Description:
Structural class: mainly alpha
Amino acid sequence: xxxxxxxxxxxxxxxxxxxxxxxxxxxxxxxxxxxxxxxxxxxxxxxxxxxxxxxxxxxxxxxxxxxxxxxxxxxxxxxxxxxxxxxxxxxxxxxxxxxxxxxxxxxxxxxxxxxxxxxxxxxxxxxxxxxxxxxxxxxxxxxxxxxxxxxxxxxxxxxxxxxxxxxxxxxxxxxxxxxxxxxxxxxxxxxxxxxxxxxxxxxxxxxxxxxxxxxxx
Length: 217
């Protein structure tokens, strides 16, 4: 049964990495839609989320089959539990990409001065964190996992600064409260994406070491 078990684990890892790439694509598209004011692209992100949800369901089903059939223990069990958690985290990131797209659609055009450089930097860091997290998962690389948490601190700093700037816009833009609010939501979604990338790195630590480590404290 061991060869089949190894084959199942390889399939599981490939599915996780595929989910990760689809999720990254959703985040990239949502921010491209925001930056280029492309409604069609934003709608595409929303529509494609169903495929991401379906892939997560398939991953969950495979994990149930592996655990039921093989009854793994120790690190083999942790590989399955870690995959389950990472799949959930990636699906949540994809949901935030959808939320970004929806917030942009509600705004449609940016009628106020926006701290766009900070917002795009949060996005860039979030994508880098997701990419590193997926690579760390594939290689079971603890050093890379710990470095992801350091990037999360930068995202948190940018988030606080950017939301404060947006709130200051309300003083002279009371009639544009809705737009400012949606922009603040977009910042919050980007900050949460970085948090979930950190969650993935923490799950990698659990996979390798067999204990939990909160890397962003």
